[in-house]
């Protein structure tokens, strides 16, 4: 889970004011009936998307545009023209601005065909009518796509009983790990099994700080990093990570995580680590890190160390599982790709998504780039990077189980996790968000001002938590919690 950075100032206020006005307008004029009209589609077809002998589909992806984009996309398009008689244009937006960018695209009705969505925007976009209902179209245009994924995954992707996006079949059951650089564990003679709690981590980090020196940061962090302290709660696809239900809570009690003792304890550790120089003081200012992290938290599967090691550019890593595996709607809807309701090429878009999820050659092209230029295959079929000039967010794209693993790895652990995961008590729950769009929007905006500061320990908790809670409550947090509890109790038949 990525936490949005602190954003303030007139630009943010202006966007929030605009967003509130827009939502009011949409609710009063029945957005689905008015904003996505047939006339609008005809104009898009005639002006923006002229007839093409070989249609080019636009796919919005999260992450930075690859350095070697032109060579990579030409290679992909040569293959797609042969297979589907289409071409593809990939458009990218970095993670820090992706949510804002996708909102702007949807509200401005900018043309596209496919967009990566997750729990932060999927529910809202689907309820607005911006995403195509593909429940029946899948069977007509992409039957293999339906067959390759378990029914549980399709069930978890549903919104109001319908399917509006294709989930990425990956580590769909959430499993959280602590990941350590092995050399430091060995240097200080630390058995990874002895690191069981945050108190144990605290002692280990302080040992590293004393031994490695003042300029060494055991919890090296940036704006994109997080220790994922909220992942042990199911936020039932609200996109607001500070409310949730414990996945094993038979009572299904909705709580505000900023009032939970176990969360507050972790926030206090983060704050103390920041004050004591265990977290780098510029963590809120830097977008990405230029050196490997001695420790970080990740979501993965048994054997994922090889993936993290490639991403980090580090020495050998070892991982300790601390939570999961568990299925929730949040974990399943954490990576999906949706077809735009106004797309001219719905059939072609679904055929493309089917091919991405069933064809290993295309899957590897999207993940690794051009064979012989960006990567090569080892004799065992694994991938060896020649460079990282095609470096995309592979988990956002499609089926992991057909993608060739990086050398030294396999997907067996991921498959085992998915088959053996527990289910959240809210896995079948579908939250109706339409009546809460105003409150959710306001609370997300407020939370985004605090999320990064809490994540890296930069905020004074005695001041920031009461201030944050006061603003959240003023803008409808209690209404969200109350309505969520009401809907949960109604679905699961709890007596009142």
UniProtKB/TrEMBL annotation:
The protein's superkingdom reads Bacteria
Q: Which Gene3D superfamilies match?
A: Periplasmic binding protein-like II (3.40.190.10)
Which segments does the entry list as coiled coil? 419-446
Q: Signal sequence span per UniProt? A: none
UniProt entry keywords in alphabetical sequence: Coiled coil
Pfam families membership: DUF3502 (PF12010), SBP_bac_1 (PF01547)
| Residue intervals of the DUF3502 domain | 426-490
Task: Report whether Hydrolase shows up as a keyword of the record.
Answer: no
Q: Does the record bear Coiled coil in its keywords?
A: yes
Query: What is the designated name of this protein?
Result: ABC transporter substrate-binding protein
């Amino acid at each position: 889970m990525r936490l949005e950075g602190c954003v303030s100032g007139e630009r943010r206020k202006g966007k929030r004011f605009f967003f509130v006005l827009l939502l009011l307008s949409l609710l009063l004029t029945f957005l689905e009936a008015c904003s996505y009209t047939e006339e609008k589609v005809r104009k898009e077809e005639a002006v923006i998307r002229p007839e093409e002998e070989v249609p080019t589909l636009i796919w919005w992806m999260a992450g930075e545009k690859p350095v070697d984009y032109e060579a990579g996309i030409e290679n992909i398009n040569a293959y797609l023209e042969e297979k589907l008689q289409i071409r593809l244009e990939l458009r990218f937006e970095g993670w820090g601005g992706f949510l804002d960018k996708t909102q702007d695209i949807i509200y401005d009705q900018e043309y596209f065909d496919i967009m990566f969505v997750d729990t932060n925007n999927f529910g809202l976009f689907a309820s607005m009518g911006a995403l195509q209902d593909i429940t029946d179209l899948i069977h007509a245009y992409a039957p293999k796509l339906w067959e390759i994924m378990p029914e549980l995954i399709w069930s978890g992707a549903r919104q109001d009983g319908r399917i509006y996006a294709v989930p990425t079949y990956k580590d769909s059951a959430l499993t959280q790990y602590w990941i350590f650089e092995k050399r430091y564990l060995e240097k200080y003679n630390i058995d990874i099994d002895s690191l069981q709690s945050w108190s144990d981590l605290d002692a280990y980090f302080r040992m590293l700080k004393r031994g490695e020196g003042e300029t060494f940061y055991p919890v090296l962090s940036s704006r994109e990093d997080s220790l994922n302290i909220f992942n042990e709660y199911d936020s039932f696809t609200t996109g607001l990570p500070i409310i949730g239900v414990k996945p094993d809570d038979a009572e299904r009690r909705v709580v505000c995580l900023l009032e939970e003792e176990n969360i507050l304890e972790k926030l206090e550790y983060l704050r103390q680590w920041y004050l004591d120089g265990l977290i780098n003081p510029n963590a809120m200012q830097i977008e990405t890190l230029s050196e490997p992290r001695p420790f970080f938290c990740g979501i993965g599967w048994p054997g994922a160390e090889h993936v993290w090691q490639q991403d980090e550019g580090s020495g050998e890593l070892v991982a300790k599982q601390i939570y999961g595996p568990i299925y929730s709607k949040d974990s399943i809807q954490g990576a999906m790709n949706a077809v735009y309701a106004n797309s001219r090429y719905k059939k072609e878009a679904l055929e493309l998504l089917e091919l991405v999820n069933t064809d290993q050659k295309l899957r590897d092209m999207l993940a690794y780039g051009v064979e012989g230029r960006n990567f090569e295959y080892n004799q065992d079929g694994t991938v060896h990077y020649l460079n990282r000039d095609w470096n995309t967010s592979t988990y956002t794209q499609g089926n992991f189980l057909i993608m060739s693993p990086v050398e030294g790895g396999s997907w067996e652990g991921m498959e085992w996790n998915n088959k053996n995961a527990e289910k959240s008590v809210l896995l079948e729950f579908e939250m109706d968000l339409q009546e809460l769009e105003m409150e959710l929007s306001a609370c997300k905006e407020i939370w985004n001002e605090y999320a990064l500061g809490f994540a890296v320990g930069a905020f004074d908790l005695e001041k920031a938590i009461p201030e944050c809670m006061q603003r959240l409550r003023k803008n409808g947090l209690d209404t969200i919690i109350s309505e969520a509890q009401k809907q949960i109790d109604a679905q699961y038949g709890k007596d009142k």
